[in-house]
Design goal:
By secondary structure, the chain is of the alpha+beta class. It folds into four domains: 196 residues, Triger factor/SurA peptide-binding fold (Orthogonal Bundle); 118 residues; 114 residues; 88 residues, Roll (Chitinase A, domain 3). The chain is built from 24 helices and 19 strands. The chain is extended.
């Protein structure tokens, strides 16, 4: 199916997929056969074309696989095609191939090609085709292409087109130079600095403290902002659930199981006395003894550490037991407070040991943790009991049992909940990921199915009706409404005091006499100095020198006075201006390239066969 207009409006991807990358990727996936994309039929081997240049289905499959694998490496896990589509990978690959085909078509029209010598040199210089001696090996070349399911003819034809395309690209964008007027304007914008003074107004500086809100004020705020406190359309669900928390108390746990669990964690419950220790090792006993003498004479331990070219983190042993210190253990544990012991032997040589703190021994008995361990074992037993009933519940539902039947016959808890996708105020069971996924998918008339919950429980649910957007009753969210009302009232009070102060300054009172001010030295417009959040800096760059302005934002409320404006100096900051010019030229080159490939696509004529694209993607799912 062809949709020229839609494709022409899209920005084409500028990423060039070299033939070598295709070879390496194909080696990794053992050719397209790994996806089953080996033959789309003799009449449908291309997903589209630009002019005379076809975009092969296999080429599209390789490029799409390449991009999916690259994105997977960024996420640290293999992504599916559907996952990649969320990020627009399929469109990026298609647009990139369209751009390449447009350039190839234009190169062919212009008669632009490269000779056999150029191709041969490129092949001979490719590291993938060299043997252990570093020389080009024809056997390695042939075997590498065979593994990639490529013939020598196909590879070299593609490489020839790749080189020709690169030549054409260079001709398009080479010599791009940013006009001085553009560079100067961009540099002036980015390099200008401004200094300003701030007078913050906070609740602590309010002349009149903020009075507590009355019930009438809270109600009025609720009524005025009712849309904020209205739940979106919800699904009213009935569910039958078996939850470990509900069954745990009925599970019997014998004393031996408790003892075994306690014993398996004895290292957590019985912890010997430990010390926080740092160890500074010396090459010889004499050097360690001399260092200890300097410490005794008043030098700091930190000085000795620095002399050894170390930081404190390098010598930190953490919390260690007497046994872990070996031969030095007795002396270190004999210290009754922070001090340095040594020289003492260690695995690395004579050392000074600084003991920083004593960590008392811990002895947690079984009786101390009996309740917690019992509940843990009861919960595990409850999860097992639920799993034992899973098949019977599934069979009952398959036989037509209702949720009400499950509650009666299997002791499941019957409940209802109004569920909103992604809402933080959903009932606790509805915040379980498995429950939420089922609630999102369920439709009226669907038959309930049992599904496991993340805590080992089981639930089956049914959609009864859709609940229109409904205000949450004030008594359920009174604290939330009161907090929002107070925040608004505080903002209004702070702004009013800032405006009153601005009036006093306009009448002749200096800003500095109105309270504690903060002077912000010259900063650029992208700076984030302490005490001046981004909206304040943005406001400063929209003011004239000497102007005073009231600022009221969630991050800052108060007065802002712009003190100085310092233009960018292109002479003093020549390197910065040159970098701005390079950046502008690169941007211009990208735009020129985009416009050219768009024009060549239009001139050549674009066709897209969506059915072949769908076939490729179906093989990759």
């Amino acid at each position: 199916m062809t949709d020229d207009d839609a494709i022409k409006k899209k920005k084409t991807s500028r990423t060039q997929t070299s033939m070598l990358v295709w070879v390496l990727m194909a080696m990794l996936i053992t050719g397209l056969g790994g996806f089953g994309v080996t033959n789309f039929g003799r009449s449908a081997t291309a997903i589209g074309s630009v002019g005379e240049q076809e975009i092969e289905a296999n080429t599209y499959a390789r490029a799409l696989t390449n991009q999916i694998n690259a994105l997977s490496r960024q996420f640290g896990q293999q992504l599916s095609l559907q996952d990649a589509k969320i990020f627009g990978v399929d469109a990026q690959v298609l647009n990139g191939l369209i751009a390449n085909a447009a350039l190839d078509n234009e190169a062919q029209r212009l008669g632009l090609s490269v000779g056999d010598v150029t191709v041969a040199n490129r092949v001979a210089g490719d590291e993938a085709f060299k043997d252990v001696t570093g020389a080009f090996n024809p056997t390695t070349y042939r075997q590498t292409l065979e593994q990639a399911r490529l013939t020598i003819k196909d590879y070299e034809s593609g490489l020839r087109a790749d080189i020709a395309r690169t030549v054409l690209q260079a001709a398009i964008v080479s010599g791009t130079k940013a006009p001085d007027a553009l560079t100067d304007t961009l540099f002036a914008y980015a390099g200008e600095t401004r200094s300003f003074t701030l007078l913050p107004v906070t609740e602590a500086t309010l002349l009149t403290p903020l009075a507590p809100a009355t019930e009438a004020e809270v109600q009025a705020y609720y009524d005025a902002n009712i849309a904020t406190f209205t739940r979106p359309e919800a699904k009213r669900l009935t569910y039958a659930a078996l939850l470990p928390a509900d069954l745990a108390a009925a599970q019997t746990i014998d004393d031996q199981a408790l003892q075994d669990l306690y014993t398996s964690r004895i290292d957590q419950y019985v912890v010997p006395e430990k010390r926080l220790v740092e160890r500074l090792v010396y090459p010889s006993e004499a050097e360690a003894t001399a260092a200890k003498a300097r410490l005794d004479a008043g030098e700091t331990f930190e000085t000795l550490v620095a002399e050894r070219g170390l930081d404190l983190i390098d010598i930190d042993m953490g919390d260690v037991s007497q046994a872990e210190l070996g031969a030095a253990g007795d002396a270190v544990f004999a210290l009754t407070g922070p001090a340095v012991a040594g020289p003492l032997p260690s695995d690395l040589g004579p050392a000074l040991f600084r003991m920083n703190a004593i960590l008392a021994a811990q002895n947690t008995t079984l009786d101390d943790v009996r309740a917690d361990l019992t509940l843990e074992l009861q919960t595990a037993a409850a999860v097992s009991a639920i799993a034992d009933q899973a098949q019977a519940i599934d069979d009952a539902l398959a036989g037509g049992a209702t949720l009400e039947d499950l509650a009666k016959d299997y002791g499941m808890t019957l409940g209802t909940t109004d569920y909103v996708t992604g809402a933080t105020d959903n009932d606790e069971i509805a915040r379980d990921r498995a429950f939420a996924a089922a609630a999102d998918a369920v439709q009226i008339g669907d038959f309930p199915a049992a599904l496991p919950l993340s805590d080992g429980g089981m639930v089956a649910l049914r959609l009864d009706s859709m609940v229109p957007p409904t205000p949450v009753p004030l008594d359920k969210i009174r604290d939330q409404v009161a907090a929002a009302q107070r925040a608004e009232a505080l903002t209004q009070a702070l702004t009013a005091q800032a405006e009153a102060t601005a009036t006093a300054i306009a009448a002749g009172t200096p800003l500095e006499a109105q309270g504690t001010v903060t002077a912000i030295p010259a900063v650029t417009r992208d700076a984030t100095p302490d005490g001046a959040p981004a909206p304040v800096v943005a406001a400063a760059f929209a003011m004239t020198a000497g102007e005073l302005r009231v600022i009221s934002t969630p991050e800052f409320t108060g007065l802002l006075r712009l003190d100085t404006i310092t233009p960018a100096d292109p002479v003093a900051a020549k390197a910065a201006r040159d970098a701005q010019a390079v950046q502008a030229e690169q941007s211009m080159a990208q735009d020129i390239y985009a416009l050219y490939t768009d024009a060549m696509t239009t001139q050549g004529g674009l066709t897209i066969d969506q059915s072949v694209i769908n076939a490729v993607q179906a093989q990759m799912n």
